[in-house]
User: Which sequence fits this backbone?
């Protein structure tokens, strides 16, 4: 869609397709293993007890 070798500058191509220049250059690195483990544990806790709020889930994670 955006061609960096085209005669139209990248910033103009981005504007034409409704994309910010920073979004064009953004390089997604993915989640690290530690974050994935925290997210899995939070999901597990919330599935068992959906009435738990931030404070209770945080205390469970600290244990």
Assistant:
């Amino acid at each position: 869609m955006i061609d960096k070798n085209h005669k139209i500058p990248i910033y103009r191509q981005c504007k034409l397709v409704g994309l910010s220049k920073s979004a064009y250059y953004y390089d997604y690195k993915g989640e690290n293993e530690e974050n994935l483990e925290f997210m899995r544990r939070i999901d597990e806790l919330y599935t068992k007890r959906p009435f738990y709020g931030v404070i209770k889930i945080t205390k469970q994670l600290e244990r």
Q: What stands out?
A: The chain has two domains: 1-28, 31-63. The first helix runs from residue 10 to 17. The mean pLDDT is 93. DSSP finds four helices and no strands in the chain.
